[in-house]
Amino acid sequence: xxxxxxxxxxxxxxxxxxxxxxxxxxxxxxxxxxxxxxxxxxxxxxxxxxxxxxxxxxxxxxxxxxxxxxxxxxxxxxxxxxxxxxxxxxxxxxxxxxxxxxxxxxxxxxxxxxxxxxxxxxxxxxxxxxxxxxxxxxxxxxxxxxxxxxxxxxxxxxxxxxxxxxxxxxxxxxxxxxxxxxxxxxxxxxxxxxxxxxxxxxxxxxxxxxxxxxxxxxxxxx
Length: 222
Known about the structure:
The chain has helices at residues 4-22, 24-35, 39-69, 75-95, 101-110, 115-120, 122-131, 134-144, 151-177, 179-220. By secondary structure, the protein is an all-alpha fold. It starts with a helix and ends with a helix.
C-alpha cells in the first residue's frame, strides 16, 4: 500500500492541477466559433483536440525535465520557474477584463475556415496555445520532476502519468463536445464567477510549486 499510494495521489493530482490551468471553458467560445453548429464536426474536432492535448501533456511530463537538464537547470529551479509561470497566469486571469488577443484573433479567423482547414487547425491554435499553452506545459514539466528515478518505479510513474493525462483529455473532450450548451447554461455572470474561482485556485497552485522548489533548493545547499 505504501508503494501504491504515491502513484494514486499522482493520478488524482495531475488532472486537478492541469484542468484549472487549461480552463477549457475559456477556450470554448473559440472552439464553438471554429466548429460551427455541425455536431459531426464538433465531435471530430473535440476528439482530435483531446488526443493532441494528451500527447503534449505526456511529452512534457516525461521529457520536459530531461530537456531542461541539458541546459544545466536543476529540478528545484524548474519547479520554481514553472510555479512562477502558473502563478502569473492565475494572477493575469484574476485581473483580466478583456479577452486575450490570441483568442480574439483565432475566433475572428475561425469564421472563414473550411472543414478541411478545421482539421488542420485542430493543433494550432485550439490545442496550442489556447488549450495546452505555456502554463500547462510548465505545470506538466513541474509534475514530471516528481516522477521516481529508479527504472521500475519510473515506468509505473509514466504509466500513471499517461492515465492521468487520459483523464484530463477525456474532460476536455466532454467539455468541448458540449461547449455550446455549457456556455448557454452558465451565462455571462456564471462564466465570470467560475473563471475568477479557477484563477484563484491556479494562483495558489503556482505558489505551492514555487514553495516546494524553494524548500528543496535550500535543502540541497551546503
